[in-house]
Design goal:
Mean pLDDT: 85
Number of helices: 13
CATH topology of the largest domain: Rossmann fold
Number of strands: 10
Distance between the termini: 31 Å
Structural class: alpha/beta
Strand order of the largest sheet: 3-2-5-6
Strand content: 5-15%
CATH superfamily of the largest domain: Nitrogenase molybdenum iron protein domain
Number of domains: 2
Amino acid sequence: MMLRAIITINSLSRSDMRTNLRPTAAAVLLAAVAGVASACGSSGSASTTPPSAVDGVISVVASTNVWGDIVEQVGGDHVDVLSIVSDPSADPHSFEANAQTQLALSKAALIVENGGGYDDFVDTMLASAKSSAPVVNAVEVSGKDAGTELNEHVWYDFPTVDKVAQAIATELGSIDPANQADFTANAKGFSAALTTLSSQVEAVNAAHAGTGVAITEPVPLYLLEAVGLENLTPEEFSASIEQDTDVSPTVLRETLALFTDHKVKALVYNEQTTGPQTEAVLDAATTNSIAVVPVRETLPEGQDYLQWMQANLTAIANAVGG
């Protein structure tokens, strides 16, 4: 699901603005924010030269704390990372982008975004800021087709995450050649840890391939597919939840029947995006003693990416193996 930029304007209340913005309206508002950020910077023209390491520390801006954490693991003490979407208790599809966000992007030496339509606000702000800093776009790095059927939640795909980590190491090394060996070594260590997780994925697949599960959104699908589980959720249900539209009564009944008829072993649901339909599905799973596995779009408090994915893998394996 695309992240929706909610922008605080002094003349409007926050509740007035907490709705989806049409692309043209978003562009106008972000342009206004860009003007504020420019005024906060200097009265001169914007620089087209990307910033570099300052005192051995590279300023990096990531669209979410998932990618921000991976930058920290690769960059170590040589990076200072700002993650735009980072509140572990908030719905990442509704957040506040402001002049400070624009200013941080304009000053960053490296920017890491998800891409695939998930965080288009980054590209809009960068265009307004006339930034020439390198951008690591996870979807582009993945090599996946960025068409309309793309599942943009690529941080649940370990091969993609490994590619992104290597791309980050390369970009950091270009910005700060003196510490390139550190970036390469850190990326290699991160890759080794991902390989360990991938081995566990293969073990779950060997034991439980073909087991039926349900979802509320496509958020965890890459991981579920990797472990061989079959998503039995009607496509219309998950598409409606992802697009924030009402689920038809017929589709909702079909989805609820997955639990009442015990056709699935687990419900893997996005706990950061909820509503009446997802709550009905969660209640049906609980009532019918179907295992429930909550997943997220941003890092939980106190966990890094590897710890988080390890916990997800363990929870999924326990759910379908019970």
